[in-house]
Specification:
Elements lengths: L1 H7 L11 H12 L3 H17 L1 E2 L16 H8 L15 E2 L2 H12 L12 H4 L13 E4 L6 E9 L8 H10 L3 H4 L2 E7 L4 H14 L1 H6 L2 E5 L19 H21 L3 E6 L4 E3 L3 H10 L8 E3 L8 E4 L3 H10 L6 H13 L6 H11 E3 L5 E3 L32 E5 L9 H5 L5 E3 L7 E10 L1 E8 L12 E7 L4 H6 L16 E5 L4 E5 L7 E8 L7 E10 L1
Parallel strand pairs: 4-5, 4-7, 5-6, 9-11
Antiparallel strand pairs: 1-2, 3-6, 7-10, 8-12, 9-10, 13-15, 14-21, 15-20, 16-19, 16-21, 17-18, 17-20
Length: 552
């Protein structure tokens, strides 16, 4: 209603950055998580940019109400509990020069990636932030600003002294995702470090290892500003923990809080993960099924692992309240203890016995079995700590994915490791594992009868050996009969072009980041064989964890 009154009261729009009214409406959209209102503000802002008008004081209806009267608006606006901005504004209108106009456009385009964390009382619990107004703006290193998804997964990561498990964790998560699921979720990596060089190195390794996921927007990398963290030098040592451990768990509480607040407006559900886990097949569908079958909406946490803070599912609408509780006591206890205390406060009666309390908490915190996530890290993020934590309800890791493929004879020039044969991989019994390939090596599938194939999928590497991928490898088919496509692929005088090999195979695809997937054109006709040709020496072993030949 306020938006309509505002636009009806004037004959032109204002830019978000320069018009007090528009900025107030923008802040209202942010506080209410109203994405449609946010888009409307941005849309009208572009109009003022094109006209070069900056209405610091356009003809505003003096009777129009201030867009927000809440204390939260004053806090967001001023960064302190000060006076409200003047309403309506009185500064004269100005023209915006071209350079300033371009800068404004850039800010509007990047608006969704620069939204501050939304928690009105955060300055009470972290008073040092009053002196650092920009500390609640995340540093979005990688991200397309995706919102409106069903599931947001949060993964905090810090620098480990011995070994990083992050890429293996991501490989496991994406390995078990369908294309449809990738379009309806966001995986947010929170690099909880302030060293820019380290943050950028993590971002670069993620970008290199998962280029498609980065480009599509399903994968984001963010980090905090150094000023987000308070002074940790005066923390009280409690529960027999050393000073270093108290600092570690205190910072961890702040890291989880930052990540949760960033993820909150992006989707419907938030799944808390860690950077050293593996996932079970179809974990997203199993999470969805478990959530949908709950008899009531009273739950606050669905658990898909019994370990620590791994595999905890929340509704995003509950996150601000949960985070506020964390921030109240972030110096006092570890995150998993605080979560349990939060549930105690919600439902436990001090006049009843502990058994009754546990029964009441069980309505809010519901456990799913078997576990969908397993902890694989050995070296903790706490320096010097070794932890061989394993979830007994997880079961055995699945290191391959089985499919029913058409009958074929399989051969390879690669030297096979132990019992990990190509035959077992093709039949879905195990993965195929071989020593390091060299240029000229191949993997060949010759069908017993020519067939019409619609597509293919070859996945190299798995969750335990994510680096054992095929590189510089092409997918080639041998048509059962000469087709027009093959004739066109052969140059004048019998010479071949880039689409064909010297021995007559037709190139139809290539491995990208260890995966080859594609559709086989009907114009190819029936095929007799599919071959994977390796064109350069590899420094790593080769592992095929999934083989799929799609037939009509």
């Amino acid at each position: 209603m306020q938006m309509r009154q505002y636009f009806q009261s004037r004959d032109r729009s204002c830019h978000v950055e320069h018009c007090d009214v528009m900025q107030a409406v923008l802040l209202q959209a942010i506080e209410q998580n109203n994405f449609q209102l946010l888009l409307t503000v941005v849309k009208h802002s572009f109009w003022s940019l094109e006209t070069g008008t900056d209405c610091r004081s356009c003809e505003i209806d003096k009777k129009a109400p201030a867009p927000l009267e809440s204390p939260g608006w004053i806090l967001l606006w001023t960064g302190s509990w000060g006076e409200k901005p003047e309403w309506p504004p009185s500064t004269p209108c100005q023209k915006v020069n071209t350079r300033e106009k371009d800068a404004m456009k850039w800010k509007v385009l990047n608006l969704t990636s620069k939204l501050p964390l939304r928690l009105t009382n955060i300055h009470y619990y972290l008073p040092h932030l009053r002196e650092h107004e920009n500390s609640l703006y995340p540093n979005v290193v990688i991200g397309q600003g995706r919102t409106g998804v069903s599931l947001v997964m949060g993964i905090p990561t810090v620098k480990r002294g011995k070994q990083s498990y992050l890429l293996g964790t991501l490989n496991s998560l994406f390995y078990e995702m369908s294309a449809e699921q990738k379009n309806d979720c966001v995986v947010v990596i929170f690099v909880a470090e302030v060293n820019a060089e380290y943050v950028n190195s993590i971002a670069e390794s993620v970008r290199t290892s998962f280029p498609n996921e980065v480009q599509s927007g399903v994968l984001e990398v963010i980090s905090p500003l150094a000023s987000y963290y308070p002074d940790f030098s005066n923390l009280k040592e409690t529960f027999g923990d050393s000073k270093e451990r108290v600092r570690w768990r205190t910072k961890q509480n702040l890291d989880y809080s930052f990540l949760m607040l960033y993820a909150q407006p992006k989707g419907t559900f938030y799944l808390q993960l860690e950077d050293d886990i593996v996932a079970k097949p179809q974990y997203i569908q199993k999470i969805k099924n478990f959530a949908l079958k709950q008899p009531s909406d009273e739950w606050m946490i669905l658990e898909f692992s019994q370990l620590g803070f791994i595999g905890k599912l929340f509704r995003t609408k509950d996150l601000p309240l949960i985070v506020e509780f964390f921030l109240m006591f972030y110096k006092d206890k570890p995150i998993d203890w605080l979560l349990d205390h939060f549930l105690w406060v919600k439902v436990c009666n001090p006049e009843k016995d502990p058994k009754h309390c546990e029964q009441q908490k069980a309505y809010l915190r519901i456990r799913s079995k078997p576990s969908l996530f397993q902890h694989v890290g050995i070296h903790s993020s706490l320096v010097g700590k070794i932890q061989n934590l394993k979830d007994k309800d997880f079961g055995k890791n699945m290191l391959h994915k089985a499919h029913v493929n058409p009958p074929a004879k399989v051969t390879t020039s690669l030297r096979i490791f132990q019992h990990y044969t190509l035959e077992k991989a093709y039949e879905g019994m195990d993965c195929f594992w071989a020593f390091s390939p060299v240029a000229g090596d191949y993997i060949l599938f010759t069908f017993l009868q020519p067939l019409k194939a619609e597509g293919y999928l070859f996945r190299s590497g798995n969750m335990e050996h994510p680096g054992d991928k095929l590189f510089n490898t092409t997918v080639e088919v041998w048509p059962a009969a000469e087709t027009e496509l093959l004739k066109d692929a052969v140059g004048n005088g019998g010479k071949v072009n880039d689409q064909t090999t010297k021995d007559g195979y037709l190139k139809i695809g290539t491995f990208d980041n260890g995966i080859a997937e594609g559709i086989i054109s009907p114009s190819v006709g029936k095929i007799q064989a599919i071959r994977l040709s390796i064109h350069s020496d590899s420094p790593v072993w080769a592992l095929l964890s999934e083989i799929l030949i799609k037939t009509s």
